[in-house]
Amino acid sequence: METIYIDTLFFINFITDYFILLCAGKIAGARLRRGWIALGAALGGVYACLCVLPGMEFALHPLVKLAAAVGMCLTAFFREARLLRCVLIFLAVSAGFGGALWAVSILGGAGARGGVVYFPINGKVLVLTFALAYWVLTRIFGRFQRTGRQEVHTVEAVLGDRRVSFPALRDTGNSLYDPMSNSGVLVCEQQTAAALFGESAALLDAADPARTMERLGERREFAGRLRLIPFSSVGGTGLLLAVRPDRITIDGAAEDNILIAVTPNSLSAFGAYHAIY
């Protein structure tokens, strides 16, 4: 009978899960809260230990494994607007790392125990395996990782009794502002911003901002809130319809003097964010 040291099992799975969660978060463009990522990894370590305990065979069921993976992602990325994206990328990255570690375990004469990671091999070999797997994965998910390196924040806007939360890219070169009030402007995709307009969203047409402003301006709730923002880009010049929300926060911090402009265009090829400011 082989002896499994529970502390070693927990530590190795904790380190492995932390690295995978961190890598998945970067690829997904999530905000990396390392304390919460560590807590998610600790959950994975506890699950690994449960899998080898007598009478806990049910923990190896695929649905239980999936629930454990989702629980880790919920813990690590619980404030992310696109949580499903984080979960799917975590599963994909786990598969990639799992294959690499399994290969190393075979070469080292070790393997998995009870369906969890247990590699009594040299620590340097394990680190080198992490580095190699990371290099391969960043080549495979290269375009996703470039998006992940961008500075994406969580924006929440409130207008009346309506509230919407979405990821937004921080563009340091953004010089868009309202010339009348000197307010900063956050550009948001129409599909996302529509939640702020409630029943009036049916009148929202970002491709025709002047006509939309005329129609929405007839409604009392939007009186004094609407602006037409001139812009200039590589594709030419034009106008954007903008609305002033009652309140707007970025990563939980209140921001003053920001308008939300609506664009008919998609701002991110992979849906990593829905606004730019």
Question: Key features?
Answer:
277 residues, alpha+beta
Write the layout of secondary structure elements.
Elements: H1 6-28, H2 34-51, H3 62-76, H4 83-107, H5 123-140, H6 142-148, E1 152-159, E2 162-169, E3 184-189, H7 190-193, H8 209-216, E4 226-233, E5 236-243, E6 247-250, E7 253-255, E8 258-263, E9 275-276
Parallel strand pairs: 2-9, 3-8
Antiparallel strand pairs: 1-2, 1-6, 3-9, 4-5, 5-8, 6-7
Helix pairs in contact: 1-2, 1-4, 1-6, 2-3, 3-4, 4-5
Write a structural description.
The chain has 277 residues and is of the alpha+beta class. It has helices at 6-28, 34-51, 62-76, 83-107, 123-140, 142-148, 190-193, 209-216; strands at residues 152-159, 162-169, 184-189, 226-233, 236-243, 247-250, 253-255, 258-263, 275-276. Strands 4-5-8-3-9-2-1-6-7 form a nine-stranded mixed beta sheet. Strand 4 and strand 5 form a beta hairpin.
